[in-house]
């Protein structure tokens, strides 16, 4: 240690940080952006399993779902219109991510979060009051715009606000809030399904306005990140925020490094073009593959359609919603484990362990369903058999919640240098939403045709993605966000794209240490 600066394992400088009340408050409010994302995942899966909702908006699906037990259980909910209701949000989020990148860069992270909250608020009002399918889909599209803005800005905000040694823990606050949103939605589904008159689904869809209000009002109270303020020319304000964030006035070295990184970034006039340069190949690969793999774990299939899935395999209506509550609880508590471990064990250890656990669970779930329903999809499931299935689905959800869930957002948000950070995060969100839309739209049809083989399909992807992590992802634990290029220049594979000479400003500034 020299002059209050520690040399990290990557060779860069780490400015020792601690959890100040200001950092905690800022990251808590920002991470509430995850509530709107999680609440929607949970609520849309629940209402699409409610008889009153299906009979009003999707009567053909309702009739098919009410058919007797001799019908094919794999295909009873197969409807492109029903899946379009769920997945239209992700199409809107995909389109929004490109606009959100410019808003985040030009106006700052906090205003992008505000845009997300206000549009999600409008969408929830439209959905809660919907009287026809068009109103329902329009509401979903507005919700998608909100998710696109929030998922673009919140992970960036958290990564830039957090001290390097706490970045993993604070960034995963976004995923924890997502899991709290899912759990809250599952509990509301369970509480409203039996309301007389069949209007319980309106409460669920309308209450999406509560998390939207939290992030909308919260964004107004938040400061912007020092990195964003410097990039937009507000250097004096950036220094004030940095002093508050770090809880000390001794921030000159870190501030100077931020200014130098911003000057290098401002020299880049076309981040979308520059991100295609060979020296950014590793970051671009991560921005595309990590979000793709996150969706190919099959998690959103489980979370969107948990109630529908449990109904499909023979649970009663209330029992299916209760099972979704159980998986929601597991998801939340396992995410807390990730928060505790990510800055101690590192990203790679969680990825590798979680991936292995998810692979085993998917294979067992697929096999249990195969033994019960075979290829015909005809049969009923005993209570003990159903409980065993829920146990392995919970093991799968736990594996995801302490690995691919939080790290799928954390790693892409922390690997980009400032000059391409907004463009890189936009690509990550865009890829995530594209895959979410495709898999969400295709899932019920895939379940109908692949049957239990669908779970083997996702298990095969678990092997591929776990191998990718083992070979191609260097450890990013504790590496300062503006020193991240160093880890690529020392990796056995990526160093051919990022030569040591590209350590640039980081290396130059280190000589004075």
From TrEMBL:
Its main location: membrane. One of its GO terms (cellular component) is membrane. GO terms for molecular function: monosaccharide transmembrane transporter activity; symporter activity. It is a multi-pass membrane protein. The chain crosses the membrane at residues 21-39, 81-104, 111-130, 170-193, 199-222, 296-315, 321-342, 349-373, 385-405, 426-447, 453-473. InterPro entries: MFS_dom, MFS_STP/MST-like_plant, MFS_sugar_transport-like, MFS_trans_sf, STP/PLT_plant, Sugar/inositol_transpt, Sugar_transporter_CS. It is found in: Membrane. Residues 26-477 form the Major facilitator superfamily (MFS) profile domain. Keywords: Membrane, Sugar transport, Symport, Transmembrane, Transmembrane helix, Transport. Belongs to the major facilitator superfamily. Sugar transporter (TC 2.A.1.1) family. PANTHER family: SOLUTE CARRIER FAMILY 2, FACILITATED GLUCOSE TRANSPORTER (PTHR23500), SUGAR TRANSPORT PROTEIN MST5 (PTHR23500:SF74). This is Major facilitator superfamily (MFS) profile domain-containing protein. It comes from Lolium multiflorum.
